[in-house]
Structure formats: structure tokens, C-alpha cells
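User: Show me a protein chain along with its predicted structure.
Assistant: Here is one chain, sequence first, then C-alpha cells.
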Amino acid sequence: MYRHKVVTNSGETFEFTERNIFDFGRVINPDYTIAEGVKGGLIHRDDAGDLWWQDFKKNKGWFSVRKLSEGEVVAYNAVNVLGGFAHSGIRM
């Protein structure tokens, strides 16, 4: 597991946890509140190519919370390309 703190050129700070989960693959989660009452989540790319934070609720399943800000996209892409598991495959 890696913890990343990314500061963008605009001065925004974002923190992420990056993990390589056995039989699943690489996951990058935010270490901050993405919406009221929602800390963490996963990223989903919609049909238009926009990135959204998603959350999971037991009786609701996965649902979109909000679109990533421009700063979040920059920070996430930095972790995605430069992170500790950037070139890792799925471990089985």
C-alpha cells in the first residue's frame, strides 16, 4: 500500500491510497471527503469520458457522487502514472 500526497500547480492538495489487491488489481482511493458523509470512493469514467467519484451503499449498490474537479483529475492522473503500483498487473 502506498499513500500519496499530491500538490497541484494551483496549490491544491489531494491525498490518495494506492493498493494492489490480490485477484482484483490496482485501486486508487481518495483519502478525503468527496461529498457530505462520503469519504473514499472509486473513480468511474462515463460514456462522455468524464471522471466521477462513486460510492457504494449496501441497498443501493454503486452510484455516482460527483464529477472530479480539474485539480483532482490532475492529481489522480499523477498517481495513476507515477504511483508505486503503476506498472503492476493483477496478482493471482
